[in-house]
Amino acid sequence: MPKTFVNFAVHPKARAYLHTYGIGNTSARVMYDVKQERIVFLVENDGEVVSATGRAYTWSPLYGNFHPKWFKYSKSDVPFITGNNTEIAIIVEDCVSACVAEVKCGFTGIALMGTSLQESFIEHITNSASNVVICLDRDATDKCFDIKKKLESKVNCYIWMLDEDLKHFNDKKIREWKGKICKMIS
Fold first, then answer.
1. 11: helix, strand or coil
2. Which one of 54, 56, 91, 173 is CB 3.0 to 4.6 Å from 40, fit for a cystine?
């Protein structure tokens, strides 16, 4: 692990960022990269850190081009997974939304760190829960159906198209969404 990674709890920017999304108590291992000014989500496999994905704290739509919003510290054959709900796992694009699925809904959150399903992710996903809901943005509709096709022979698989990322849902909307997901699966 780089020496520039520090515990997020001791860094005010990292605490503030996680607080913005209400995910300060996630079970995911979160660090802060003081050099790159990134909130870092550690990707683990059987308790061992195998990679990390960092979200730029200072990134903005106006100035984002010189500082990539997301940065993969190394290639990973494992998706970012947080939570331990063995009934329902939610597949999303990014680590923050995965943490929202865990903290605010009690689901297992799985981040593809993009919209493509790597073949190496399949076993990790299908072993995470008996029901998997793919929740990507509408612009990734075709990819949702491709992902479902790859997973549905191994796990109960559903699609829920999102108009906005889970991380942007307010508390009322997240409660309503959670209820709809549970009803869809039951």
1. coil
2. 54
Is-contact 70 113, C-beta < 8 A?
A: yes
Q: What tokens were used for 29?
A: 């291992």
Residue 162 φ/ψ region, left for φ over 0, alpha for ψ in the -120 to 50 degree band, beta for the rest: beta
For 141-173, what is each residue's pLDDT tens digit? 999 999 999 999 999 999 999 999 999 999 999
Instruction: Please tell me the distance from the alpha carbon of residue 45 to that of residue 54, in angstroms, as a whole number.
Output: 18
State the average pLDDT for the chain: 92
The answer to whether 14 and 21 are in contact (CB under 8 A) is: no
Pairing mode of beta strands 70-72, 48-56: antiparallel
Amino acid symbol at 19: H
Indicate whether this model's pTM tops 0.90.
Answer: yes
How many whole angstroms separate alpha carbon 133 and alpha carbon 144? 10
- Inter-residue contact 51 to 75 (CB < 8 Å): yes
160, amino acid identity? W
User: What's the sign of the alpha-carbon dihedral 1, 104, 20, 136?
Assistant: positive
Q: Encoding tokens for residue 34?
A: 């003081």
The pLDDT value recorded for residue 19 is 93
